[in-house]
Design brief:
It is a single chain. By secondary structure, the chain is mainly beta. The protein is 0% helix and 49% strand. The protein is built from one helix and 85 strands.
């Protein structure tokens, strides 16, 4: 083939990112992607604890049943939950706790099995998680406590050879040290109630000389001094309940409420009532006296502005067991009641307590806690009667909620709760019943026969979507082929629709019918995120269902039919996120089904009561909805069906004939006689069908035009519905269970090895066809073929021995072959194969009027080899511009409104050529660089006319994944 071409390299600029790309081995065995329907391995569950907000994530400790208690992270936006690090490998775990956030770092205490319980830090990544310092050398634990942030430093107490003393850390080993040995030798000074006051930390400590008194520190030994010796000598002043109001520190003693400005000797008595509980709002503080009385006071830290609010319980005082604040209001807990302040008097709030002091967290002006009888329920209060209520109903399907934590950045709450399905696992809530759901099941049982039964697979924007049962019913899931990247789109526990029927991709989104109680069964959309998964439109408003069906993607549009209970079935199109009804012909025009797409339009089966059910076409408008043909005269109708696409023309069956159509009445004609019993079945550029003649069924192949149809005798007894394109050939299964390869001719039809028995063709990834086959040694397992006898073999025995895993293919996404397999260990779950180099066709080409659309095919882009990019079926003189780019997730339409462009706008020109005899080939050299393995590219040819009367056309794109 002679060409004139200018070639521009594409791979040399990409080599710079090779270090960021994964390396693929020569052949990847099948791997379980995710056990989407797990069961609990331990009835106790993962027992999560210590929930602490860390940006828009939360960190907590949990035991997944394999690693012991370790730190985990959950993203409260995406729902992704991952093990941060296995600090103490094995089932014992590191038991992390005391999570404390300082800027972009979270500090915590953990035991890695080597250093004892010491201080750790993390930036939220496994690589950024490390021991800060082994304060008590070796396996002896320093057991850091009272972690307190003061400015850019973390203060804490630790027990070493000097006893328990005050320590400080800037997050580095060199910046972590004991501040001062206040009780010299091994005696503890037991620093406690560490409280930040400006840039210093105030605390209570005990020394032989002073007893228990108030101290301050700036993080240096010289700057650590006695703040007040409230009772001179070794007797205890015993300051307690430290709280900051404005620029002052308030604290209580046996003699009353005191304040200090943080300077030595600057303490003064504010009020003679001795506080047993003290809580600050920042601008004022509330304190309660006790233990037998329960008078409550408010103060700004001055004697003049300290006043009593009354007694909890009124004439029958109830001792206050806990004092918190909600915004600027006090919230007081007794053994049996909750009290607040309405601005005038202390008021009992509508809640009965169970005697225990609940764990509380606050966000904004709301205090959240777990309380109630007979079963604990999550509550919220703003300190008023009206603002105190459960934020989750007791009937929610879990019990024993505990370990409440807050993520202020996203307004979410996390807590631990028990369900029979999961055990004790982490849950997340936005403070509503609808917004409460499990974070993750961290203790799945790998040895289970519970099955996810994956099905309805499509790819959208480089992501695989499918339906699967996650143990709570069939739901939409997404996968990138990895365990971490495979999960339900809407986690279990959140209100989610009941999916059913079809799943169709349009651009980067998927559409599907789904039902909710409030809306019935309607059209839903998902971009793979929780926020991006929602109902598109409630066509039949309210609880009634419109039951969308016949979903057909037509480039950037979606066509479907749906019912209204008043007006009946109608045709709809979704475009630019808007749904509109297409009226079609004059009443009583009715669309019975959408058969398939031609460009941005769709072929329909419709009835106008004049001609019966016949083929129609719509361009998305009422005016552009026309009957293609009146195949059967009168009202009988031809019942058109079995639409397939041959790259530039649509085929459909009607009245036992096959029709070809370009979407216009003039371009719609029968290409067979009236004796077609089965078909058409498309495979690449060919369609196969059975024709009944001379009392026998004969196999025919067609290119979709009169004069291109001929009989293929060896295929007369083949299952034509199994037709699957493999390169330029077709694979079929014979009636006797043999695997056939054909080029559409009798001479070019061969039988692949006899070792293949009872095959079921699954699909192809352009380079290989994947199928199941039975042999006595391995049962029904996964096989593959490149179309040759030598290249046909069993790929893997997933369930070893004569037992069978019975693979069922779902589809191909980004070079990975996804399928389901059934094993005793997992049940039927999602599996994937990464076969290395792969080619996948993307979209459709566009053609000149009355001609074939040009076709682009590629051979496998194997590292160190050459991939041939071949353009064929160029109908008119044109300049071929071969382009390539990194994978893009969408496409856009040429200005002429006919062709789609599937590359990044910044695509690189691989070559220019004048195709000879309607064809052009470009050789793409692939460097033998393992760093390029896994690199995804796309290529597409644009054909520019060389005459003024010509039109720009384009091939479909091919997606290439470089590999072995």
């Amino acid at each position: 083939m002679k060409t004139r071409a200018h070639r521009s390299p594409i791979l040399s600029p990409l080599a710079a990112i090779a270090a960021l790309l994964p390396v693929l081995p020569a052949q990847q065995p099948p791997a379980l992607v995710a056990d989407l329907n797990p069961r609990v391995s331990n009835p106790a569950g993962s027992l999560p604890s210590g929930f602490t907000g860390f940006g828009d994530r939360a960190i907590f400790a949990a035991d997944d049943g394999s690693n012991g208690p370790e730190p985990w992270l959950t993203d409260t936006v995406t729902g992704a939950t991952t093990l941060l690090a296995d600090l103490n490998p094995g089932p014992v775990g590191s038991a992390p706790d005391r999570f404390t956030v300082l800027g972009n770092t979270v500090f915590f205490v953990a035991d890695d099995g080597v250093h004892g319980r010491e201080l750790w830090r993390s930036d939220g990544s496994a690589a950024g998680t490390a021991l800060v310092l082994d304060a008590a050398i070796g396996a002896v634990a320093s057991e850091p406590q009272d972690l307190t942030v003061v400015g850019s430093l973390l203060y804490f107490t630790a027990a070493t050879a000097n006893g328990r003393e005050l320590w400080v850390s800037d997050g580095t080993a060199t910046g972590t040290h004991e501040v001062a040995d206040l009780a010299p030798g091994a005696t503890d000074s037991s620093p406690a109630e560490l409280t930040a006051l400006g840039g210093i930390v105030c605390f209570r400590a005990t020394t032989p000389a002073t007893g228990a008194e108030l101290w301050r520190s700036d993080g240096t030994t010289a700057g650590t001094v006695l703040l007040e010796d409230l009772v001179a000598g070794s007797a205890d002043g015993n300051p307690r309940q430290l709280a900051v109001v404005g620029a002052a520190l308030l604290f209580g003693t046996a003699t009353g409420l005191w304040r200090t400005d943080g300077t030595s000797g600057g303490a003064m008595l504010v009020d003679g009532h001795s506080p047993t509980l003290l809580a600050s709002t920042g601008t004022q503080a509330y304190f309660a006296t006790g233990p037998t009385t329960s008078e409550v006071f408010v103060t700004d830290g001055t004697a003049a502005n300290t006043q009593s609010l009354g007694t909890v319980g009124g004439t029958t005082p109830e001792p206050v067991t806990a004092l918190r604040v909600a915004g600027q209001r006090p919230v007081l807990f007794t053994a049996v009641e909750l009290w607040g302040f309405d601005g005038t008097a202390l008021t009992p709030l509508p809640l009965i307590l169970n005697g225990a002091v609940p764990a509380t967290v606050s966000m904004g002006n709301v205090l959240y806690f777990l309380a109630g009888l007979p079963t604990q329920v999550p509550f919220r209060t703003d300190g008023t009667v009206a603002g105190t209520r459960p934020f989750l109903q007791a009937a929610t399907p879990y019990n024993d909620p505990r370990e409440l934590g807050a993520v202020p950045a996203t307004g979410n709450l996390l807590f631990s709760a028990f369900t029979p399905l999961y055990g004790q696992e982490p849950w997340i809530s936005n403070g509503t019943v609808q917004g409460t759901h499990p974070v993750a099941d961290l203790t799945p049982q790998s040895g289970t026969t519970a099955s996810a039964e994956p099905r309805k697979f499509v790819e959208a924007g480089g992501t695989a979507f499918l339906f699967a049962d996650d143990g709570a019913g069939l739901t939409l899931c997404r996968s990138d082929g990895t365990t971490a990247g495979t999960r339900p789109v809407i986690p279990f526990g959140r209100p989610r629709p009941t999916v059913s029927g079809e799943l169709v991709a349009v651009g980067t989104k998927v559409y599907f019918p789904a039902a909710m109680n409030a809306t019935g069964n309607e059209l839903w959309v998902s971009d793979g995120t929780v926020a991006g998964t929602h109902i598109v439109v409630d066509i039949d408003p309210g609880f009634r269902s419109s039951f969308p069906k016949n979903l057909v993607a037509a480039e950037d549009r979606l066509y479907f039919v749906a019912d209204r209970h008043i007006t009946g079935r109608a045709l709809f199109v979704l475009e630019d996120d808007e749904v509109r009804e297409i009226a079609g012909g004059p009443p009583p025009f009715r669309v019975d089904g959408v058969l398939g797409a031609i460009g941005r339009g769709a072929v329909l089966r419709a009835n106008d009561d004049t001609t019966g059910r016949e083929p129609w076409f719509t361009d998305g408008t009422t005016a552009g909805t026309v009957r293609l043909a009146d195949v059967v005269a009168g009202t009988g109708g031809s019942e058109p069906d079995r639409f397939c696409w041959l790259g530039d023309i649509g085929l459909f069956w009607a009245d036992f004939q096959i029709f070809a159509t370009d979407g216009t009445p003039a371009g719609t004609q029968a290409i067979t006689l009236r004796a077609v019993t089965d078909g058409p079945h498309a495979a690449g550029r060919r369609a196969y069908f059975h024709f009944f003649g001379n009392a026998t069924y004969n196999a025919f192949v067609t290119l979709g035009r009169i004069g291109t149809t001929h009989q293929v005798p060896p295929l007369d007894l083949a299952d034509l519905s199994s037709a699957t394109a493999l390169g330029s050939d077709t694979l079929l299964i014979s009636q006797h269970g043999a695997l056939l390869r054909t080029d559409g001719t009798a001479a070019g039809t061969v039988t692949l090895p006899a070792s293949v028995t009872q095959p079921k063709i699954l699909a192809t990834d352009e380079r290989f066809a994947w199928f199941t086959s039975y042999d006595g040694a391995a049962g029904d397992e996964l096989w593959r073929t490149d179309g040759t006898a030598a290249g046909t073999a069993r790929y893997a025995d997933i369930e070893p021995g004569s037992a069978a895993s019975l693979p069922r293919l779902l589809g191909v996404s980004n070079g990975r072959v996804f399928f389901s397999a059934d094993t005793p260990a997992y049940g039927r779950e999602l599996w994937a194969v990464d076969p290395g180099a792969s080619v996948q066709s993307i979209g459709h080409g566009c053609s000149p009027a009355g001609g074939f659309a040009p076709l682009l095919a590629a051979t496998s882009p194997v590292l160190g080899g050459t991939a041939a990019l071949t353009v064929t079926d160029v109908a008119a003189p044109a300049v071929s511009v071969m382009l390539a780019s990194l994978v893009t997730t969408g496409s856009f339409r040429f200005p002429n409104g006919q062709c789609d462009y599937f590359l990044e706008p910044t695509a690189i020109v691989l070559g220019l050529a004048l195709p000879q005899n309607g064809a052009y080939a470009h050789a793409l050299a692939i460097p033998a660089d393992p760093g390029l393995a896994g690199l995804p590219l796309r290529a597409q040819a644009i054909l520019l006319p060389t005459t003024a009367a010509g039109a720009t056309t384009a091939t479909p794109a091919v997606a290439l994944v470089l590999g072995s």
